[in-house]
Design a protein that fits this description.
about 20% strand, four-stranded parallel β-sheet, seven-stranded mixed β-sheet, 29 helices, Leucine--tRNA ligase, alpha+beta, binds ligand ANZ
Amino acid sequence: ETTYDIEATETKWQRVWEDLQPFRADDDSPREKRYALTMFPYPSGDLHMGHAEVFALHDVVARYWWQRGYEVLNPMGFDSFGLPAENAAIRNDEHPDTYTRANIARSIESCQKYAASFDWSRTFNTSDPGYYRWTQWLFLKFYERGLAYRKNSPVNWCPNDQTVLANEQVVGGVCDRCGAEVTKKELTQWYFKITDYAQELLDGLDDLEKTWPDRVVTAQRNWIGRSEGAHVTFTLHTAVGERDIEVYTTRPDTLYGATFMVVAADAALAAEIVHPDRAQALEDYLVEVRKASDIDRLATDRPKTGVDLGITATNPVSGEEIPVWASDYVLADYGTGAIMAVPAHDQRDLDFARTMGLPVRRVIDTGDDNPEETGVATSGDGTYVNSGPLDGLADKASGIRSIIERLEADGRGSGAVNFRLRDWLLSRQRYWGAPIPIIHCPVDGEVPVPEDQLPVTLPMLTGADLKPKGTSPLGGATEWVNTTCPTCGGPATRDTDTMDTFVDSSWYMFRYCSPHDDTQAFDSAKVNMWMPSDLYVGGVEHAVLHLLYGRFFTKVLNDMGMVDFREPWAAQLNQGFVINKGKKMSKSLGNGVNLGDQLAAFGVDAVRLTLVFAGPPEDDIDWANMSPDGSLRFLQRAWRLSGDVASAPGVDVTAGDVALRRTTARTVHDAAELVETYRFNVLVARVMELVNATRKAIDSGVGPADPAVREATEAVAVLLSLVAPYTAEEMWERLGHEPTVARTGWPAVDEALLVEDTVTAVVQVKGKVKARLEVSPGISEADLEAAALADAGVQRAIDGATVRKVIVRAPKLVNVVV
Ligand code: ANZ
């Protein structure tokens, strides 16, 4: 008997688990609670290697918590709205729900075969009306609080998907879904006012830093992008008179070096202030500007372009008159959309000045060559020059303070903080999402759909009706669009946009706590009982989208009194990618690894073990370097132990072989710490060592009947239950126990077995080491002193002198002073 039948074993235990439901989270359990959350998948097909990895890693912790006696909430659902289902529906001339449901059914089956310890009694899909009803309800709550609003502005537009994108969804100037070049389009859109929470979202990171991966915390800090500086007011002299405009600068101390101003070419301001003679030039220029993404526009190495607006502005401290230009390197929706250009100390301003032939004036002497000649802006510390009262000063902080004081005194500016974070654009002109529950009435304007009329369900559209056309496909469902105004009863129309799927996933972690409640979004008492979630496992690609939005939602819900915490995820772990032959798996490279094939060849346990054993969870796993067959051989070796154990269950283990008992105790003890510090690969290595030690004991004099062999093999089964659930069950059964090993509890460790046999105590006389004694680690100070003084070498060193003092630090040191 060298192996077990993988397929039969998997089928057998799935049935048993189906009966026992070992992982149902009980709200009323008296046990301490733990919430193990892993990012829910988009149902775009069956599970793949990436899911296999993250579920295997996540399951180690969830299963460990159960074994440690916690009540564990480990739910799973599906983020099922979104473009892939809609695109598939257009291709196959069907409804997106058909595709979605088929994929979900397949994924659930695969998860169950994969033995992921999810509580399926709590599952839901975000595209269920029973779920999105509450997404809409939350939208209305945000709306009531002034946190959801509509505005007209240039937005990121994906010409391929024919929809707007949030800033977070534009990666390197292209759509993060389809890769098409993103352009700008002026549209009326819905926004969430996440900027109201910018400072708090930033401050919260100081605490999260201790339990969240560094790269996520850093990405959020950069994304929020807080900077300190000043608002400075310049007076514009336009063709129709004077007007004040504000700029935002981080370097108000360089104000004397501002030789021109630049306003964002696409900001409304530019068209308002342009001299009539220059209006056509601005318009022509704008056609070009609309083609570029924000990322391109901010790139330092991009050739500078712009238009002279034909007007001037007065510098508030020097009184100097400077020209005003429009360019695309200034962004319309950042700061105030206008800047003071200091070409000597800002590279983009310098490039612009050199391209347009504008003056450059150095105001900080850094000891470097003059930027006007070198074309290299200087930004280091130095001494102020050409700066009126600042001249001679060599301290940046005082320079900034002094200018701000002067501006404040003159009413021409003030210290200011700026954030890079923009409000969250949440409306999409696509079909497969939660409709925005607003009615537009010619009399009453925007009217929220009354709560008792939620959900606003999607009208039935299929195939070609879903084709993107720049406006929402919902607009074509005339019967659905035309409705009556809840306020005046007159004719009105529904908002035809749907919500970004990131709205759905911003609150799903709350819903798991009371997933079937059809009277409210979630039961606050239950949410407060389970949350914040103790561990969130998922991909680092969500560092600034989902993970920031979910934090924002939590803060708003806390302000609404619905939850009693302000951060949803206490700790986080990011897994690496599963790659193949050094490269990301992709269709074009043909290096994809099919999960189903791997499972068929090696079994679930061997694949799981391989993924967990591969290395630290954060590291990428190159499947080409893995050996799932090696994993399988190890699992069989472990399993064979359970057939060899020749003592009965419940045998008195204290009579067992001490050496093997020590190895078992040490392994179980360390395993806990390894799981808690996410060193799952080391955990597997330690179980391998324990298997080897047990095999050696059986084959040597100790023999299979020794109780220590049973104790060790049972420990192997329990530890393996975190990684290889099927093998663990098989072992447990062969060891004479009832299922399920997954809930049997963590093995007891006799602390005495963890104690080393002896430790070395050093004895010094007159500061020199005179003896080393092997003593028990628990030796008393008196016993250690006596043993030290009785040592012949120590006596020789004392040589009859009077012992004045003996300093004892048991069990390691004795210092004899004579
Ligand atoms: C003058 C100056 C002098 C600047 C200097 C920098 C260096 P952060 O740190 O990212 O907040 N700026 C302001 N609004 C802008 C806009 N809408 N588009 C493009 N650039 C803009 O950057 C703030 C700095 O970026 C501001 O400080 C401004 O340039 C520029 F030696 O003002 B500074």
